[in-house]
């Protein structure tokens, strides 16, 4: 009998309709439950792609050390894939990241290296490149690695097109590394150039939303192509957190803050269009945010 492996379960996540939050509308609001991936987030797709493609090119082999700067979900996903395929994983992240995320990475056997909250992801990225230059391992660099958006071009986009039977009119995605929005944009617009791609970003630099960034120009991900995004919508930290809690209590969808921000943006978009099929990404699960206090105690 040919049994499945853990990595074979990455992808093919459910696409479900929001029932109460949209209110009275002739639009259909759908969300893709990426927390159903084995590592608990959309980043499982990119992590598996980056490691398998690097292996195929002969750049890495099992037993090697890999290095990555992460704000959380990519680190967990890479730690999982490294465990599956036999790599040593060094993850660099801000000390402000939740304890659940750190514990998950360590559970998979990863080494955690912290930078200050002030240094943030930019400081983590700089340290990763310094470590690579010193011969401590290979940086996968999700921000510049085309295998990141490739994973969504090859899996997420086709799944959305298939499950909406080609009826999707708008795709809404939080923008972190931008891999999700870039890969889906490329695929969906190949199927129908009229599909609108909507990026979600924090309203101000003071809005701290894990997984969503408003990048300084010096650190803008190299994989990002502005021409692939039709519209940018701003969301605040407060409205993202409120929506995250509403998704749990009104829709039974337990997710993180960036997912809340994506749905906030989808609702703002829904007010501007009619007879649309809007797809938003639920990036991860809410259980990795409990210690941050964003859910009622």
From TrEMBL:
- Write out the GO MF terms: cysteine synthase activity
Q: rRNA-binding: present as a keyword of the record?
A: no
According to UniProt, the reaction catalysed is: O-acetyl-L-serine + hydrogen sulfide = L-cysteine + acetate
Q: What is its EC number?
A: 2.5.1.47
Q: Does the keyword Amino-acid biosynthesis apply?
A: yes
Q: Which residues carry this modification: N6-(pyridoxal phosphate)lysine?
A: 43
Cofactor dependency = pyridoxal 5'-phosphate
Q: Can you give the residue ranges of the Tryptophan synthase beta chain-like PALP domain? A: 7-284
Q: What class of enzyme is it?
A: transferase
Where along this sequence does the record place binding of pyridoxal 5'-phosphate? 73, 176-180, 258
Pathway noted in the entry: Amino-acid biosynthesis; L-cysteine biosynthesis; L-cysteine from L-serine: step 2/2
Listed SUPFAM superfamilies: Tryptophan synthase beta subunit-like PLP-dependent enzymes
This protein's source sits in the domain of life called Bacteria
Family that this chain belongs to: Belongs to the cysteine synthase/cystathionine beta-synthase family.
What protein does this entry describe?
Answer: Cysteine synthase
């Amino acid at each position: 009998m040919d049994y499945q492996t853990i990595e074979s379960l990455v992808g093919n996540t459910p696409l479900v309709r929001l029932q109460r939050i949209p209110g009275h509308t002739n639009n259909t609001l759908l969300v893709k439950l990426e927390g159903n991936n084995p590592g608990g987030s959309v980043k499982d797709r990119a992590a598996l792609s980056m490691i398998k493609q690097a292996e195929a090119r002969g750049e890495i082999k099992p037993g090697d050390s890999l290095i990555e700067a992460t704000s959380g979900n990519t680190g967990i996903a890479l730690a999982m894939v490294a465990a599956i395929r036999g790599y040593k994983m060094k993850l660099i992240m801000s000390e402000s990241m939740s304890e659940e995320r750190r514990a998950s990475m360590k559970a998979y056997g990863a080494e955690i290296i912290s930078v200050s909250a002030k240094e943030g992801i930019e400081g983590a990225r700089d340290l990763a490149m310094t470590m690579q230059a010193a011969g401590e391992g290979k940086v996968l660099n999700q921000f510049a690695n085309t295998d990141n958006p490739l994973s969504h071009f090859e899996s997420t986009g086709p799944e959305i097109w298939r499950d909406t039977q080609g009826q999707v009119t708008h795709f809404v995605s939080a923008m972190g590394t931008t891999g999700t929005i870039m890969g889906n944009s490329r695929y969906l617009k190949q199927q129908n150039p009229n599909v609108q791609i909507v990026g979600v970003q924090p309203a101000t630099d003071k809005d701290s939303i894990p997984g969503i960034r408003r990048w300084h120009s010096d650190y803008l991900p190299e994989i990002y192509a502005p021409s692939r995004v039709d519209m940018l919508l701003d969301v605040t930290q407060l409205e993202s957190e409120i929506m995250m809690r509403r998704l749990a209590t009104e829709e039974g969808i337990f997710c993180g803050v960036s997912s809340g921000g994506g749905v906030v943006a989808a609702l703002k978009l829904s007010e501007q269009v009619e007879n649309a099929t809007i797809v938003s990404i639920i990036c991860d699960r809410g259980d990795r945010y409990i210690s941050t206090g964003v859910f009622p105690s």
